[in-house]
Amino acid sequence: MKKEYWIDRWERDLIGFHQNEVNPYLRQYWQDLNLPHESEVFVPLCGKSHDMLWLREQGHKVLGVEFSSQAAQAFFDENKLNPQHQTHEKFECWVENSINILCGDFFDLGKTQLSNVSAVYDRASLVALSPEVRKKYVHHLLSILPPATQILLITFDYPQHEMTGPPFAVSPDEVVACFHQHAQVRLLAQFDMLEQNPSFQERGLSRIEESIFLLTTGHF
User: Fold this and answer.
1) Which of 9, 34, 110, 205 is 20 to 30 A from 198, comparing alpha carbons?
2) Residue 178 and residue 135: Cα distance in Å, rounded?
3) What is the pLDDT of residues 170-185, one digit of tens each?
4) pTM higher than 0.85, yes or no?
5) Which domain holds residue 54?
């Protein structure tokens, strides 16, 4: 998915992917990572997610990356935060009290920016990418993360022909195929979403499951 696509979605306020509450799976399963206090958490395609505030409340430093500077500005404005704004290399940087959002292209990130990261929280990144981009995303992510980084990953799985993404369908088998050579893959839970979400039924889906994974990277 191209940078321009996401910038356009934010400019036109087409952000149905944004959640107004903290993700319940984050609350429920984050403790499984058992991270030390002040560990840095990387949130790819972070938008203006409230999850970043929750992670900070748990004592973590948060590093987000986001295409849209409008999304970053909205995050700080809506939460009445006053960030420092600067430009560093290919990124605009917005920093305020343990939350740092880099505005730019995920694929421009290097090991230097993620050198202090202990964990990744991916609720809306992998599923936002088309199949041809997902492998590139996973390869780049694993190549810039420090060894032994934990990843809490949330995905959707449904018959792709029944609905146009994003969010795209990412099956558990695809998660294993993408990560297993360079990370331990553990399925924490899987939930049937169809009955509780009439909107998916209205869009013609016959099934949709949400899966929560805990991955631990090795040496890449």
Assistant:
1) 9
2) 7
3) 999 999 999 999 999 9
4) yes
5) 1-12+36-122
